Amino acid sequence: MNYQWSWSAFYDVSSDGISTYAHNLLCGAGWTVATALVSAVIALFEGVTVGLLRVSTNRLRQRAGAVYVELFRDIPLLVQIFIWYFVVPELLPSALGTWIKALEYGSFVTASISIGLYTAARVAEQTRAAITAMPKGQLMAGLALGLTRAEVFRLIILPQAFRLMIPPLTSELVNLVKNTSIGMTIGLMELTARAREMQETTFHTFEAFSAATAGYLLINLVLIGTIRVFAVGRKNRKEQATRSLPVQEVLP
Fold first, then answer.
1. Which chain regions cross the lipid bilayer (predicted)?
2. Residues 6 or more apart from 93 whose CB is under 8 A from it?
3. Which DSSP symbol is given to 20?
4. I want to staple 9 with a disulfide (CB 3.0 to 4.6 A). Which of 39, 88, 204, 236 is the partner?
């Protein structure tokens, strides 16, 4: 294959006649990061909440959590984005639907919500698995000390469960970053969309998608590094707190 590489294409003026392709790719990376951050916040809060429903002693809450997980986990993300973007506004009252469709950043909002709710179903199962992995004696001991069930979960169970969740949650957040590329199907000009735009106008396919690949790799490496720093810092603080506890002498 006689392909002519040209890295200088990044400094050519893009099809909008104003900015360069390098600038557009950086803007696309910014939208990727913004979408990932909003989606991650939604996924973590919604996922932990649904995970708690899954381990509730109330049958109705358990079933509600199970329905949420099966509904959002079993439907492809692309289909969910299309439903939120094209179908839901039509089902709402006309004034509200028109307002939603006229939002300046409608594609960003839709992509963030869709990816967040989809990922929340997977985070919920990780939360449920981490909680059920805890020894049942801890719950019983907390209740015996006079704590309510909610206090036992908040003070004892969840802090330990979150430590167990760090490895699978890291992988899930990495997948979330990659899933933001689906946002281009509804007009979100994130990193993949900008790379495709450059490829279609300059025909420098390898350069465009090499830059996108490097961008996703860099974003995810920063994400993984941040989580590791947080996990190590939390572990060190716990060890320091343990060492600072006074040791009582045992009298003979």
1. 29-53, 65-87, 208-231
2. none
3. B
4. 204
